[in-house]
Amino acid sequence: MTTPLAKLTQIPPTVAAVADYEVLARERVSPGAWAYLDGGAADELTARENRAAFARLHLRTRVLRDLTNGNTTCELFGTRLRAPILLAPVAYQKLAYPDGELATVLGASAMRMAMVVSTQASVALEDIAQEAQTPLWFQLYIQHDRDFTLRLVRRAEAAGIRALVVSVDAPISGLRNREQRMGFAFPGGVEPVNLRGLMPLPRATGEALFDSPLITRAATWRDIENLREATKLPLVLKGIMTAEDAERALVAGADGLIVSNHGGRVLDGQPATIEVLSEIAGAVSGRVPILLDGGIRRGSDVFKALALGASAVLIGRAFVHGLAAAGAVGVAHVLRILHAELEATMVLTGCRDISAISPASIRQAGLRT
Ligand SMILES: Cc1cc2nc3c(=O)[nH]c(=O)nc-3n(C[C@H](O)[C@H](O)[C@H](O)COP(=O)(O)O)c2cc1C
Ligand SMILES: CC(C)CC(=O)C(=O)O
Predict the structure, then answer these.
(1) Which segments within the chain are labelled E, that is strand?
(2) Which residue of 133, 186, 295, 307 pairs with 51 in a disulfide if CB–CB is 3.0 to 4.6 A?
(3) Which residues line ligand 1 (CB under 6 A)?
(4) Residue 325, class by beta-carbon neighbours within 10 Å (0-12 exposed, 13-18 middle, 19+ buried)?
(5) CB contact at 8 A, 110 and 328
(6) Domain coordinates of the chain in residue numbers?
(7) Distance separating alpha carbons of residues 299 and 17, to the nearest angstrom
(8) Is 321 assigned a catalytic role?
(9) pLDDT per residue over 188-217, tens digit each?
(10) Which pLDDT band holds residue 369 (cuts at 50, 70, 90)?
(11) 153-178: pLDDT as tens digits
(12) Any atom of ligand 2 within 6 Å of the Cβ of 91
């Protein structure tokens, strides 16, 4: 049987970087699906800023250091990871590739990199877990039906999930103008199968958003505290963008935080994640691990996030582009490219392992205040 890694030789030789997959992916999916998979909220300023802010940061090299026995491994919540790069939760992956999340988990397994399964995956959580040969985490959207939500948590526990990522930044969907202009609608066969059996939201009583059940039944800090009581899984809050919320999350019992603006897909006008990382890392002061996502397309971006206080990063669109272009092989290849770039950046900055990467690895003048 050929492994996905063996099939990597089928990748066109012109693919050298993650950005090359973006070009291929765009050609392979419908314009509507592209608007969903690649787009952001409103004017997409935040989505662009996530990338631009990485480009403004510059690396400080240290030369002639002994780099023998160097490696990229790290540990998160008791699991040893090959590299501090995880696949972010991405809904409806069948929009990108017919096998959807099953192809993704194969690609992640080939590279032994962890994957976070979305609540709104287009393949059942248990079916993804069945194929996984790599650590899986589950991303939870707290549903208006809290009993249903708890059943999702129990399913995640039963499937051998290693951590629960609760996304707290999207009580409502972003206003995605690009999708609206394309008239995007989900095609048949692409649905949130893990939410089957969930009663629809009750009808809104008025026109105002504030009166709608989306808001009146939206999650609050109390739900995080209840979840903390309900499960022993490590609880990681995704969508933290301020030091105040980081502090509050620790009080609620979070075991980790993900600095994320949802890839600029929810509220346009938020700053880049890499811009707020130092502030949040300062407030958290090593009490729990901080992860970051948003705009990562290069191994040097991973390095910059680690330098400014992240323990690991997640990638969203980068792997979606690989998935859309070449299925499992594309996902594995994107991970391989990022891993190789991270290694090269570490060697060239004189960092033997992840713990050697520090704020001194970045030229601080490049940071905005
Ligand atoms: C197509 C798509 C679907 C997403 N679906 C989810 C989701 O179901 N849950 C979630 O917490 N975040 C979701 N996200 C956000 C990602 O987890 C992540 O925060 C974001 O993609 C990071 O930015 P990047 O795409 O620039 O790497 C989605 C992102 C994309 C691009
Ligand atoms: C179904 C959506 C809310 C999933 C999501 O988080 C996204 O599209 O960014």
Answers:
(1) 74-76, 79-81, 85-87, 115-117, 136-140, 164-167, 235-240, 256-259, 290-293, 312-315
(2) 295
(3) 36-37, 50, 88-91, 118, 120, 139, 167, 238, 260, 262-263, 265, 293-296, 315-318, 320
(4) buried
(5) yes
(6) 19-194+213-364
(7) 10
(8) no
(9) 999 999 999 999 888 777 779 998 999 999
(10) very low
(11) 999 999 999 999 999 999 999 999 99
(12) yes
Gap between the terminal Cα atoms of the chain: 54
Q: Which helix (H) or strand (E) holds 281?
A: helix 273-284
Residue 91 pLDDT exceeds 90: yes
Q: What is the pLDDT of residues 119-131, one digit of tens each?
A: 999 999 999 999 9
User: Distance, CA 351 to ligand 2 centroid (Å)?
Assistant: 36
CATH assignment, 19-194+213-364: 3.20.20.70
Question: Three-state DSSP class for 340?
Answer: helix
- Predicted TM-score (pTM) above 0.80: yes
The structure tokens listed for 79 are: 């699991």
Q: Which of 36, 90, 164 to mutate to test the pocket of ligand 1 (most atoms within 8 A of CB)?
A: 90
Q: What is the ipTM of this complex?
A: 0.99
